[in-house]
Amino acid sequence: MKAYLGIYTARLEMPWVGSLKEKRALVKPAMERLRSRYPVSAARLAGQDEHGWEVVGFSLLGYDGVWVETVLREAASFIAAQGEFRVTEENWSIEEVSLEDILPQWVR
User: Fold this and answer.
1) Is 85:26 a contact under the CB 8 Å cutoff?
2) What is the predicted pLDDT for the residue at 58?
3) What's the pLDDT at 107?
4) Helix residue ranges per DSSP H, the chain
5) Vertex 11, ends 7 and 78: CA angle to 5°?
6) d(Cα 79, Cα 13) in Å, to the nearest integer?
7) Dihedral of CA 90/69/35/63: which sign?
8) FRET partner for 13 with CA separation of 20 to 30 A, picked from 20, 37, 47, 86?
9) pLDDT given at position 83
10) CA-to-CA distance for 105 and 108, rounded, in angstroms?
């Protein structure tokens, strides 16, 4: 039995932001809207103590690789369309994961 793990990371830039509080007010609600709209795990990963940029990421695990990729692409487009920051770098990864060793015997 196999599953697909999709991981997406993005660097968000907002050089016009003057404080960490202002940046958090842009990024945190966007991440909350993302989580409520898409079945992903999302987190702020780096740059929380920097004014002009931050790295965010989200992941998704599913049994259908096409579905995992589609949802990640839609979620990435959603983040980019927020308009409150610019996505300057993106990284994608979709990997096949074997579940044979981690599922209970009765599931197989």
Assistant:
1) yes
2) 94
3) 58
4) 20-37, 65-80
5) 65
6) 12
7) negative
8) 37
9) 74
10) 6
- Residue 3 CA to residue 91 CA, distance in Å, equals 20
Q: Would you state the structure tokens that stand for residue 105, as one six-digit string?
A: 């015997």
Q: Which residue has the tokens 């096409």?
A: 66
Residue 100 carries which side chain, given as an amino acid letter? E
Task: Tell me how far apart the alpha carbons of residues 84 and 23 are, in angstroms, rounded to a whole number.
Answer: 9
Q: Which residue has the tokens 């039995």?
A: 1
Taking the chain, what is the end-to-end CA distance rounded to the nearest angstrom? 8
Per-residue model confidence as pLDDT tens for the chain (108 residues) = 788 999 999 999 988 888 899 888 888 999 999 999 999 999 999 988 888 899 999 999 999 999 999 999 999 999 999 878 889 999 999 988 887 776 666 555
CB atoms under 10 Å from CB of 84, counted, come to: 13
Classify domain 2-99 by CATH number.
3.30.70.1120
Amino acid (1-letter code) at residue 40: V
